[in-house]
Write a structure and sequence with these properties.
Elements (H helix, E strand, L loop, with lengths): L1 H8 L15 E3 L11 E3 L1 H14 L3 E5 L7 E6 H7 L1 H11 L14 E4 L9 H7 L14 E3 L1 H12 L8 E2 L7 E7 L2
Parallel strand pairs: 3-5, 3-8, 4-7
Antiparallel strand pairs: 1-2, 4-8, 5-6
Helix pairs in contact: 2-6, 3-4, 4-5
The structure holds zinc ion (ZN) (2 copies).
Length: 186
């Protein structure tokens, strides 16, 4: 179906596969999944799913806050970044190496959280190409903080609850993967 098909059909016409409410989001096992693997979810069911995913996650990830106006909010592993944008891979690894303890609950941290001020459909390509240090962190966002999986999910979910989000595809990091979660388009 693709993103354009999704726009044409209108996400709001879809029903959540878990509870039958209107579904504004699509959830998939991995970035760029086949349309049939992208399950429509309502906001409450997406929030539950993200809580589960990040609580189970045992790897390390740079997580950029959700941003309105971008169709995808997906995890990209380091192998993908290395092949497509080596500078971003190198800079993401530098951020992963700074992970300490969770700033919100003091548990061992797994993620580096970066706010997404300035991240738009026009600017996300720069973030992927040049890395967060040369982009988001010079655009007035606070310094990155380490978070455990549980607190990362809470920050994502607090963002999503502010409204205006409609993600065609959302996916989480799983197992011991390492990489970057960011709002983007493809
Ligand atoms: Zn639901
Ligand atoms: Zn925590």
């Amino acid at each position: 179906m693709g993103f354009l098909g999704f726009l044409k059909r209108g996400p709001r016409k879809k029903k959540c596969v878990r509870c039958g409410q209107q579904a504004a989001h699509g959830y998939s096992p991995a970035a760029e999944s086949d349309a049939k693997q992208i399950n429509p979810l309502c906001l409450s069911c997406l929030i539950e799913q993200l809580r589960h995913d990040y609580a189970e996650f045992r790897g390390r990830a740079v997580v950029i806050a959700p941003a309105v106006g971008l169709p995808c909010y997906v995890f990209r592993n380091l192998e993908f970044l290395r092949d497509t944008t080596p500078d971003c891979e190198r800079l993401s690894v530098a951020l992963l190496e700074q992970i300490t303890i969770c700033a919100d609950c003091q548990a061992p941290a797994r993620c580096v959280w970066i706010e997404s001020r300035g991240l738009t459909i026009e600017s996300f390509g720069d973030v992927i190409e040049k890395g967060p240090q040369a982009t988001l962190l010079t655009w007035g966002n606070p310094a990155p903080v380490s978070l455990c999986g549980k607190c990362t999910a809470e920050r994502i979910n607090n963002g999503l609850q502010t409204g205006g989000f409609e993600f065609f595809e959302v996916c989480s990091p799983h197992l011991d993967e390492q990489g970057l979660v960011l709002p983007m388009a493809y």
